[in-house]
Amino acid sequence: MKRLAAISALLVVCASYSFGADECVKCHQLLGDKPTQLFKKDIHASKGVSCADCHGGNPRSDDMERAMSKAAGFIGVPKGDAISEACAKCHADEAKMKSYGSALPVNQWKTLQTSVHGKLAVAGKEHIAQCTTCHGAHGIVSAKNPASPVHPLNVVKTCATCHSNAVYMRSYNPSLPVDQNEKYRTSVHGMRNAKGDTKVAECASCHGAHDIRSAKDLKSKVYATNLPATCGSCHSNAEYMKEYDIPTDQLEKFSSSVHGIALLQKHDLGAPACNSCHGNHAATPPGVESISKVCGTCHALNADLFSASPHKRAFDDLQLPECETCHGNHEIVAATNELLGTAPEATCGRCHSEEDNAKGFQAAALMRLLADSLESGEQQAQRLVDEAEQKGMEISEAKYKLRDARQARLEARTMVHAFDSDKFSDVIGKGLTVASTVHGEAQAAVDEYYFRRVGLGIATLIISVLVVSLYLTIRRIEKKQQKATVL
Amino acid sequence: MKTFLTKIYTYVDERVQLEDLVQFMGKKYVPVHRHSVWYYFGGITLFLFLIQVVTGILLLLYYKSGEELAFESIQFIMSKVQFGWLIRSIHSWAANLFILAAVIHMFSVFFERAYRKPRELTWLTGMLMLFLGLGFGFSGYLLPWNELAFFATKVGTDIAGVVPVIGKPILIFLRGGEDVTGATLSRFFGFHVAVFPGIFTVLLGIHLLLVQRQGMSEPLGVEAGAAAPQKTMPFFPNFLLRDLLLWLIVLNILAILAVFFPWELGQKADPFAPAPAGILPEWYFLFMFQTLKMIPAQVWFIDGEVLGIVTFGIAGLLWMLVPFWDRKSARGEQNRTTTYIGIFVVGYIIILTILGWLL
């Protein structure tokens, strides 16, 4: 430990000596300019990087004219892309970075160029953001240093410098909101961040640092299909989340849910990702009261029916989260008839028992029966349609009609949320009528198929008899003719 | 019953002198030799044509021409009309068998030199009917207005449009505009049920009249080597009954095809959809289609497709005019060159058709 302290002290002395020996610093210190003051604390200064390494010129010459001459390579204050190019001279050079004892990645400049900030600025001459835009110029410190503008506790403010500036943002993306910072501060992440928690998500945690892409970009960490993994990078990490006392299986459950399968496997962008229910910058778990509103943004009809149903008041009284009580949250599976009814795996039975709530119990049992009968009727009709089609029968009209039965089944699944067995049986009845009509038409087509074969058999028999008779007639006539010729 | 039929016969005879016709038919004989079997293909072709007429008229009772109606009306015929499926399938199958029988009949006539004097006109009318038959097939193929038919017609009319000078006007005339649309369907329907049948009936009348008047031609070899009296059979009833027997067998084949392989309707044509992969014309156009595909894009300074179409045009014309340039056969002499040409043409058609299916 003592040895380490001695080496550190030596390094600081050496750095001070080298900094002190720099003629640029000597002069500019006398002039009292701010960059020189700031650069004293800059991480680059501590690593022995001189003014001339970025600005060019001869730091050993005390003659201002010669030190800051073009012949000495002086470039003055870099402008536009020249700023990032100056940084990249070292930061994109692995060998150089190693010589400074840095383990930083050397692809920042490259990734910045491919990012949304790497696009050309409105003037069309330089990129939107340079290294200094976020890191500052002369007072640069490590990102882990609380004084750094990109430190987790400061980065939101740094990003907000541009992103909360409506006038500035209008030049680049007028449709992009400028209230991210405000929303963030209302989120669980934002509130904890404000209290000094450096582990919670800030801008760079979700959007990346140098490689930030538009949310519409397929490669963006916040693109709908990538978002669950981005959130999961913290929320599925049990070790990382240990101190927060919340479950870490959300991603696992979501991935196997109907929403997760649609989004992650079928790449259906209409399916919800984490932010669809929790919000993005204002991310927070929906409360008991708001859960049906959140689900209702997509499942509007179901939410309306539920709100008008007798269950609404009962759920409110019991403080039950509306949709979640029956469907769950992250693990929502496709709604099948199994959810309905009084069987152990059905949800209705959890509240409606035969003894305590006979009316609800019977209604649930009836609704399940009706739903099953429609499903079975539709399946039978479908099987017959398939059979008729496979037999080469023209059945397109019945096939088309069958879509109405399917539609009725889907409608019935929505109508369940009214919890009114009369309304439910009306919809089911509509579907059953269609299924029965299709069944009849498909059966007729299958019967017709066999009738055709029987008909062909009879026709072939008659034709064969005619052919044989004709053949015999010809022979008889020709024999007669031969006899007549002989005579 | 017999008295009643006799009365009818007498009634008609008194007015149109049927007796002369019966006398003529009674004295009509058909040569019997080792190639006699080919005579029956004329009758089979005629029978298939009659089936086409009857089934075509029945389909007309329900078919509705028009972009929005054609496909649906065929769907209706196939699923709702009593025996509509049978009529449509027989019509489609008989159309194909008609072309096949006509082609066999044509080649048998060619190889037997039956086109030689005095039967030049019979050959000419036959060839014109064959071309009309192909026209029937091409125009009828579009009428269901399904995907395959739509694109096959597009490709077919595109090929016609390549013909130098007259190609473009022909294309516009056939399509009723620049593209295959409802206008094309309307005029194809017109050709199929009015123009072609009208012309065909006239040609068929002349053809049959000439066949009856001139009798069956005997192959050159048979005629030349006839030392003994030529063996014959009476046209009525012997030949006619044999014809009838074959017709019954063809009818049964048609019924089997219609029941086991009902003619598919496919998907409704969508002019905005991309052409499905592997679009092929009907089998009887396949050898020409394959040839055009195989000809290089540029042959010397001529466009490959133009060269192919012009060559087929000239070849078809020369084939039709064979009675006029095959002077040797006209004189009753054997002409091996014509035989070799015929064998080459048959071989070419068969090989290119197979390649068309496979490639």
Cα-based radius of gyration of chain A, to the nearest Å: 39 Å
| β-strand amount of chain B | under 5%
**Average of per-residue pLDDT values of chain B:** 91
Q: Major β-sheet of chain A, in short? A: none
**Average residue pLDDT of chain A:** 89
Total separate domains of chain B: 1
Number of strands of chain A: 0
The CATH superfamily of chain B bears the name Cytochrome Bc1 Complex, Chain C
The main sheet of chain B comes to:
2 strands, antiparallel
Please tell me about this protein's structure:
Chain A has 487 residues and is mainly alpha-helical. In chain A, 60% of the residues lie in helices and 0% in strands. Chain B has a single domain, classed as Cytochrome Bc1 Complex, Chain C, CATH 1.20.810.10. Chain B contains 16 helices and 4 strands. In chain B, the strands form 2 sheets. In chain B, strands 1-2 form a two-stranded antiparallel sheet. The longest helix of chain B is centred in the middle third of the chain and has 33 residues. Chain B starts with a helix and ends with a helix. The chains are: A mainly alpha (487), B mainly alpha (359). Chains A and B meet through helix 27 of A and helix 4 and helix 11 of B.
Question: What characteristics describe this protein?
Answer:
heterodimer; A: 487 residues; mainly alpha; 27 helices; 0% strand; elongated; B: 359 residues; Cytochrome Bc1 Complex, Chain C; two-stranded antiparallel ribbon; two-stranded antiparallel sheet
Entry summary:
In chain A, 60% of the residues lie in helices and 0% in strands. Chain A has 487 residues and is mainly alpha-helical.
List the helices and strands and how they pair.
The complex is a heterodimer of chains A (487) and B (359).
Chain A: H1 2-21, H2 23-31, H3 34-39, H4 43-46, H5 51-55, H6 64-67, H7 81-91, H8 94-99, H9 108-114, H10 131-135, H11 155-163, H12 166-170, H13 180-186, H14 188-194, H15 203-207, H16 227-235, H17 238-241, H18 250-255, H19 258-265, H20 274-278, H21 291-296, H22 300-307, H23 310-318, H24 322-327, H25 358-390, H26 396-415, H27 421-486
Helix pairs in contact in A: 13-14, 25-26, 25-27, 26-27
Chain B: H1 2-16, H2 18-26, E1 29-31, H3 40-60, H4 70-79, H5 84-111, H6 120-142, H7 147-161, H8 167-175, H9 182-214, H10 220-224, E2 232-234, H11 235-260, H12 286-294, E3 298-299, E4 302-303, H13 304-320, H14 322-325, H15 327-330, H16 336-358
Antiparallel strand pairs in B: 1-2, 3-4
Helix pairs in contact in B: 3-5, 3-11, 4-5, 5-6, 5-11, 6-7, 6-9, 7-8, 12-13, 12-16
